[in-house]
Sequence to fold (164 residues):
Amino acid sequence: MNPELQTVVDRLELAERQSRGWKMMTMAALALAVVALVLPLLRGNEPKSDRAKFSVVEANRFLLRDVHGAVVGGLESASDGTLRLVLGQRGGASAHIVVQPHESQITLNAPDGQWRAVLAGSNQPSLSLSPDGRAANAALMTRDDGTGSVLLRDALGRPRFRAP
Fold:
C-alpha cells in the first residue's frame, strides 16, 4: 500500500469514527424526544391534585386558616356594601381594614386585643394613637372647614398640647 492510499484510508477511518459519535448523539436525542412525548401521556392516569387553578373566584367571604385549621383572618363583603379585611386572631395582635360607602378605616390592635392605632379616612380624616386602647394619647384630626388640630395627652390622660 502506497503512502497516498494509506492517507486516504486513515482519513476514511477518522470520518467513520466521527460519524459514529454523531449517530450516537442523534439516537440519544431521538430517544429523549420520544420519552418527552410519552411521559405526559403516562402521567395523565395519575390522580389529579387537590388544588385547582381558576382565573376567577367569586365569593362573599373568604376565611384564612393557619396550618392547624384555626381562623386567622378573612375578607368579606356585607350586603350594605361594607368590605372588611382582617388579619390576625380575635383578642390578639391584628390589623383591620374596613371600607364603607362613605368612609374607610385601618385599625391596628396590640397582642392584648386593644386598639393602638386608627387611621380614619372620611370627610374629616384622623389619626389616633393609644398606649392602652382606651383614649387617644396622640391625635391628628381635620374639621369640616379644612383646618386641622393636634392633641397630645400625658400618661394620666390630661391634655398637654392642643393646637389650635
About this structure: The chain has a mean pLDDT of 86. DSSP finds one helix and ten strands in the chain. Residues 1-47 form one domain. Helices lie at 3-43.
